[in-house]
Amino acid sequence: MPMGDRVLALNVLGEVEVTRDGVPVALPPSRKTRALLAYLAITGRRLRRDHLCTIFWDIPNDPRGALRRSLSKLRPLLDEPGHTRIVADRDTVALDLSRSIIDVVAVRKRIGLSITDAPTEALQEAAAAFRGEFFQGLDLPDCGDFQAWCAGERQAARTLQTDILRALVARLTDDPIAAIPHAQTLVGLAPMDEIARATLIQLLAAAGRKAEAEQHYVTGIRILERPGARSSGELVETWRKVAETDSEPRLAKQQL
Prior knowledge:
Strand order of the largest sheet: 3-2-1-7
Helix content: 55-70%
CATH class of the largest domain: Mainly Alpha
Radius of gyration: 23 Å
CATH topology of the largest domain: Arc Repressor Mutant, subunit A
Strand content: 5-15%
CATH architecture of the largest domain: Orthogonal Bundle
Structural class: alpha+beta
């Protein structure tokens, strides 16, 4: 490893941020420059300058110059003495990702090929990595190709997060206090998912938070009354069972 080389972390599950040895690095104010950095990192391969110009600067006036200016703003943020992370020549641009961590890549590596087989601790660490949606705040309405690519990546990240949360809630059913935050996040991601909301209601009731459970039931019913919504009856049946029980927390009962 080169002298002075430090671990660089790029986080894209939320607003894009860069840290060097845990210390935040101030990013350029230009959204296109930040998007360029994240795009190079996530694609993880050498890209032609013409392609990058088409993605970000499909304009008649010197798109290559705009690309050069963005790269010049990124170099002092990423390069280290003896370690050039932005590798560019006349025709192509790439990022040297050695000694670098990208949160979405780390999440996939942490849980392995199967969420079902991943340890609970690994799933909890993976869930904590999601600070918001993929590339949050980095929409570029005038860059159609980038937006299409970003939409696909966002959907993939959302599906991954949802699958992780479902697995955690299922594993932590007997520990409502631990399961509730994951169930709440899941309902926030999928407010029309009747089963996810019913599960949250069960967990809240088991933890003695029946008023919150009732509020989620009322909200869920309102959502299911919207045009086009379909109900399996799961929400109503779950609330009926909860309403018939007393409000004493399951945890308190277990301690008797």
